[in-house]
Design goal:
The structure is a single chain. This protein is an alpha+beta fold. The protein has one domain. 32% of the residues lie in helices and 21% in strands. The protein is built from 5 helices and 5 strands, in the order αβαααββββα. Strand 3 and strand 4 form a beta hairpin.
Length: 141
């Protein structure tokens, strides 16, 4: 795809709001094999952790830090992570982006998280099974 063609296709980002982190994480992992794989490559499954957000951040950060698939350095650093106090954005080696933002509230019991998924091409193509599954579960652009 040429740069000019990409300029006419805005990034198509699917999002969904959750009242708790665990619920969002579980749904994200059920929708995307790539997200599930990235989040469970270590020794723990964040879905079963006492603090699933902390476990998810640790798993993704370790993936990015040790993205060294070959002995000669070829293909290193393809996955990426951005972590702030307000959320996480992770890119898999295949280019799928996913993550979450937290929206703190007063009282803290009213906090909510918005999870997102962005297709590697920047736009979901017609017939995408990820798009169909996500929209069926209420994810929106």
């Amino acid at each position: 795809m040429t740069l000019a063609a990409k300029e006419f296709n805005p990034i198509f980002k699917l999002e969904k709001r959750f009242s708790n982190f665990r619920g969002g994480l579980e749904e994200l992992m059920a929708l995307s094999f790539s997200a599930e794989q990235a989040l469970t490559m270590g020794d723990t499954d964040p879905r079963r952790a006492d603090d699933p957000e902390e476990a998810a951040i640790i798993a993704l950060a370790l993936n990015a830090a040790f993205d060294r698939p070959t002995g000669n350095g070829v293909g290193w650093g393809q996955c990426k992570i951005s972590i702030t106090a307000f959320g996480v954005d992770y890119t898999t080696t295949g280019g799928l982006r996913f993550g979450w933002d937290i929206y703190p509230a007063t009282p803290p019991d009213d906090d909510f998280w918005t999870f997102h998924i962005i297709h590697p091409d920047g736009v979901f193509h017609p017939g995408s099974t990820l798009l169909a599954s996500a929209t069926e579960k209420g994810w929106k652009e």
